[in-house]
Amino acid sequence: MVLKMQQEPYKIYLEENEMPKSWHNVRAAMKEKPEPFIHPGTRQPCVKAELLPVFCEDLVDQELNVTDEYISIPDEILSFYKMFRPSPLVRAYCLEKELDTPAKIYYKFEGNNTSGSHKLNSAAAQVYYAKKQGLTHLTTETGAGQWGSALSMACAYYGVDLTVYMVKISGEQKPYRKVLMQTYGANVILSPSDTTDVGKKILAEHPDTGGSLGCAISEAIETAVKSQNCRYVLGSVLNHVLLHQSVVGLETKIAMDKYGIAPDVIVGCAGGGSNLGGLISPFMADKINGKNNIRFVAIEPASCPSLTRGKYALDFGDTGQTTPLIKMYTLGSGFLPSPNHAGGLRYHGMSPIISKLYDDGYIEAKSYVQSDVFEAAQKFARSEGILPAPESAHAIKGAFDEALKCKETGEAKTILFGLTGTGYFDMSAYQSFNEGKMSDYVPTDEDLQKGFDTLPGC
Amino acid sequence: MVLKMQQEPYKIYLEENEMPKSWHNVRAAMKEKPEPFIHPGTRQPCVKAELLPVFCEDLVDQELNVTDEYISIPDEILSFYKMFRPSPLVRAYCLEKELDTPAKIYYKFEGNNTSGSHKLNSAAAQVYYAKKQGLTHLTTETGAGQWGSALSMACAYYGVDLTVYMVKISGEQKPYRKVLMQTYGANVILSPSDTTDVGKKILAEHPDTGGSLGCAISEAIETAVKSQNCRYVLGSVLNHVLLHQSVVGLETKIAMDKYGIAPDVIVGCAGGGSNLGGLISPFMADKINGKNNIRFVAIEPASCPSLTRGKYALDFGDTGQTTPLIKMYTLGSGFLPSPNHAGGLRYHGMSPIISKLYDDGYIEAKSYVQSDVFEAAQKFARSEGILPAPESAHAIKGAFDEALKCKETGEAKTILFGLTGTGYFDMSAYQSFNEGKMSDYVPTDEDLQKGFDTLPGC
Question: What is the DSSP string of A85-98?
Answer without folding.
Answer: -SPPEEE-HHHHHH
